From TrEMBL:
One of its GO terms (biological process) is maturation of SSU-rRNA. Residues 322-392 are annotated as: Disordered. This is Serine/threonine-protein kinase RIO2. It comes from Tuber melanosporum (strain Mel28). The lineage of its organism: Eukaryota, Fungi, Dikarya, Ascomycota, Pezizomycotina. Belongs to the protein kinase superfamily. RIO-type Ser/Thr kinase family. Residues 364-383 have a biased composition (Basic and acidic residues).
């Protein structure tokens, strides 16, 4: 089954409504029973809803999953992407989608534009993309977790990034301007600069080095440790050589148990990179943890702004427990065939198995395909269509 972005323009208001119903149902059902989809969508006549479901399944926005207890559907990443895009489109944050400019381990980055043609960056968080690839250990981990865990965790990651970016921007840190956030996505300004890792020579390595060390200290003096301060997350303007920090997935408070370790790692990372790439070593060994003087409380502010300590803990736990498992097991378990029945864990055995596995594989394929980049050159058309389509 190939995902066809052209088909999106044929999605009706009712299709959108049903897609939203599947999303709502996934809040407490790993596999949303068809009857529940009918109920939530509030559309009269089950056959109409079934038609919508099959339209959505055809373009990979939902995937059929059959388990021992009931038939149902799950929202795919593709489905969640379309819902987020539809929201951005309605809010006029995004009008068209252009090229993909980055594929991170856990995110996809696209250049997008609004109606005026102003270019921006859309970052789609995709936590669980790797763990989702049928690793048994991860399935076990996710089995008893919040349903639609990948969706929930990706949303948390987007919420976190948006909350931090907002606070940092408001406090004059060099970060992209956060423009909008919906579900697992954020929209920010496009920084026309090169990642440090792509830069082979600098007019003055010592100047940039000093700026970066100063930034690490400034973060800390405001109560924050970046935690992943490296050549991938720093863009450098060609003319001014001013740095912009684009990504802060590990950012924590200076009161965090590992704050000192993260701080020292950030410093070392820059030191090592400058030595290797630019053959530059600074005269002094600092900055040191003991140099940090707290003058601000951005860590406290960010919590108040909507990304709670509880959410931070949940995300941290996920990152700690799932991410290392994926790295270790990805290759070995790739044929496990993993995620269709985690809802009940009982569908393994007897007659159900053969049929269930077939369905599982099918839905798995659908999910895999839905995860393929789905917005490229056709993106503008897609968004044109989205702009004219209302969910209700
Ligand atoms: N606002 C932006 N402006 C310009 N380019 C950007 C912007 N945000 C991201 N990019 C580009 O996309 C790439 C990936 O972005 P980012 O580091 O945020 O993703 P990621 O998924 O966290 O990556 P990884 O996990 O691999 O470090 C960057 O290296 C950069 O080239």
């Amino acid at each position: 089954m190939k995902l066809d972005t052209h088909a999106i323009r044929y999605l009706t208001g009712e299709d959108w409504r049903v897609l939203t119903a599947v999303e709502m149902g996934s809040k407490n059902h790993e596999v949303v029973p068809t009857t529940l989809i009918v109920q939530i969508s509030g559309l009269r006549g089950g056959s109409g809803v079934n038609k919508c479901i099959s339209n959505l399944a055809k373009v990979g926005l939902v995937a059929r999953v059959k388990n021992a207890k009931y038939d149902g559907y799950r929202l795919t990443y593709g489905g969640l992407d379309y819902l987020a895009l539809n929201t951005f489109s309605k809010r006029k944050s995004v009008y068209s989608v252009g090229n993909q400019i980055g594929v991170g381990k856990e995110s996809d980055i696209y250049v997008v534009a609004d109606e005026t043609g102003a270019r921006k960056v859309l970052k789609i968080h995709r936590l669980g993309r790797i763990s989702f690839r049928t690793v048994k250990a991860n399935r076990d981990y996710l089995r008893n977790r919040h349903s639609g865990s990948w969706m929930y965790m990706s949303r948390l990651a987007a919420l976190k990034e948006y909350a931090f970016m907002k606070i940092l921007h408001e406090n004059n840190f060099p970060v992209p301007v956060p423009l909008d956030q919906a579900r697992h996505c954020i929209v920010m300004t496009l920084i026309e600069a090169f990642p440090l890792r792509q830069i082979s020579t600098l007019t003055s390595p010592s100047t940039l080095y000093a700026k970066l060390m100063e930034l690490i200290l400034r973060f800390a003096s405001q109560g924050l440790i970046h935690g992943d301060f490296n050549e991938f997350n720093i863009l450098v303007h060609e003319d001014t050589q001013e740095p912009v920090i684009i990504d802060f997935p590990q950012m924590v408070s200076v009161d965090h148990a590992n704050a000192k370790e993260y701080f020292e790692r950030d410093v070392k990372c820059i030191k090592d990179f400058f030595k290797k790439r630019f053959r530059y070593t600074a005269d002094d060994d600092g900055p040191f943890w003991g140099d940090v003087r707290r003058v601000g409380k951005l860590d406290v502010l960010v919590e108040a702004s909507g990304f709670s300590k509880k959410q931070a803990k949940e995300l941290e736990k996920y990152m700690k427990e799932v991410a290392p498992l994926t790295d270790d097991n990805e290759a070995g378990d790739a044929t496990e065939g993993g995620e269709g029945t985690e809802d009940d864990g009982e569908g393994e055995g007897g007659e159900e198995e053969e049929e269930g596995d077939g369905e599982e594989e099918e839905s798995e394929r659908a999910i895999e395909e839905a995860r393929e980049p789905m917005i490229g050159e056709d993106g503008k058309e897609l968004l044109d269509a989205l702009g004219n389509t209302r969910i209700s």
